[in-house]
C-alpha cells in the first residue's frame, strides 16, 4: 500500500478493490469468524502481520465489491477492556497507527484532534479514535 497503489498484503493475497467477494471468501474462509456468504461484513479470527505490525482485520463489502478495510493494532500490550481501561494505551495505539501510516504514505493530508486523513487517488485512509467507544482504528475506504 502506498499513495499510488491500494494493495494491502494479507497472507500473500492482496486485498484491494479488485478482490471480489467470492474470491475473498475462497482465500480466507478458514481465517474468518463464523459467517454466511450473504453477509457484507467479515471479521478475521486471527491477527495478521502487515508491513511489520500485527493487526485485527475487518472487511466490509457492498454487493460484490470491497468498500472498506479496518485495521487495529493487535499488540496485547495496547489492549484495553472495561475492567482495565487506559487512555495512555489508547494514545499509544493511535500513535502506532499514525507512525505506521507515515512510513507507508508519508505526511497526512489532514490532521485533527482525533484523526489523521490521507486523501489518495484510490481512496481515503483515516487513523482515528472514536471518543465515545474508545475504539482506535485505521479505516481504508476505496473510491469507485
Structural overview:
Helix content is 19%, strand content 37%. With 144 residues, the protein is an alpha+beta fold. Strand 4 (48-50) and strand 5 (53-62) form a beta hairpin. It is globular, with a radius of gyration of 15 Å.
Rg is 15 Å
Give the percentage of residues in beta strands: 35-45%
Q: Helices and strands: which structural class? A: alpha+beta
Q: Can you summarize the main beta sheet?
A: 8 strands, antiparallel
Distance between the first and last residues' Cα: 17 Å
Q: What's the rounded overall pLDDT mean?
A: 95
- Outline: globular
Beta strand count: 10
Provide the helix percentage. 10-25%
Poorly predicted spans:
none
Output the number of helix runs: 2
Write the H/E string, N to C: EEHEEEEHEEEE
Record the SSE blueprint.
Elements: E1 8-10, E2 13-15, H1 21-28, E3 41-43, E4 48-50, E5 53-62, E6 65-73, H2 87-105, E7 110-111, E8 115-120, E9 123-129, E10 136-142
Antiparallel strand pairs: 1-2, 3-5, 4-5, 5-6, 6-10, 7-8, 8-9, 9-10
Give a quick set of tags describing it.
144 residues; alpha+beta; eight-stranded antiparallel beta sheet; two-stranded antiparallel sheet; 2 helices; 19% helix; globular
In short:
This protein has 144 residues and is of the alpha+beta class. Helices cover 19% and strands 37% of the residues. It has helices at 21-28, 87-105; strands at 8-10, 13-15, 41-43, 48-50, 53-62, 65-73, 110-111, 115-120, 123-129, 136-142.
